Amino acid sequence: MDGLDAIKAKYLESIMAAGDEAALEGLRVAAVGKKGEISLKMRELGKMTPEERQVAGPALNALKDEVNSAIAAKKSGLADAALDARLQTEWIDVSLAGRPRSKGSIHPISQVTEEVVSIFASLGFAVAEGPQIENDHYNFDALNIAPEHPSRQEHDTFYMHREANDDRPPHVLRTHTSPVQIRYMEKHGAPCRIICPGRVYRADYDQTHTPMFHQYEGLCIDKDISMANLKWTLEEFCRAFFEVDDVELRFRASHFPFTEPSAEVDIRCSWDKGQLKLGQGDDWMEILGSGMVHPKVLQAAGVDPQEWQGFAFGMGIDRIAMLKYGIPDLRAFFDSDLRWLRHYGFASLDMPNLHGGISR
After folding, report:
1. Per residue in 174-184, pLDDT tens?
2. Between 3.30.930.10, 3.10.20.30, 3.20.20.70, 1.10.4160.10, what CATH number should domain 107-347 receive?
3. pTM, full prediction
């Protein structure tokens, strides 16, 4: 069959010169399409003798394969060229250093609250919340706080205004988050394992006290809970939160109306050139109060103290933030000083978790 070399040269040259995929598709149709030049040549095989077909058939198939291969190679080359051109305009230098930090910062209180929640979530504690304006029953009575207790006096507690003839129970700005525990047990019963973070209010103001501060309290109620479980829980929390492997806690007998027995908890520490180091040294620092939940508190929440028992503990979020991050004055937390926040604040995308790191 004559003219195959000329057809081959024509199409291979045109394919090499094609500038885009549309031109390439046109050449494909013209060469090997249903009515393409090579396809029409192949139809002529039926008119040939067997001897002629044995020569022309393989030659036509080889030509068709060569044209198709050239089209595929050119198409791949055009795609690579288009990708290179796109990368030149959309490239990102991953080695670029010193990008400015985002303007927003996470307040240390918010950061530490998230750290606490993350740690206790890993220990199986859920988060419970309640109102910041509480009535006298939930804030005092249900927690076994006697009417003559000093914490019920106006020099220590913020009472809401009410008219002289108003005989409804007084309302207060909650002085702790313990009322959340009562509300939770009333609604969900036992067993339970919760922490209650939130704002609390007391009439006090100095370097280590403010009228409004943040606190979280923990509660664990079950049938076989003891002080040993409390000790283990607090040790695990302190290891994770303060990020030290060795933690030694000391329990000192104390008195709280809502727990019996009650204990103040100290952590072993030392001071080195004005820097606090936890988990080592000969000094002790008080960090929280704890104890076994008083039977009267369980009873007030509708839980049978003959069947259930548990532990509770409470700690100031502001205080442990000061200890961990070296913040000297509690009042600075509430000054709205952006310079302070830029110094002590956390990047907005830093999400504390036990796997990635509690503090970064």
Report:
1. 999 999 999 99
2. 3.30.930.10
3. 0.66
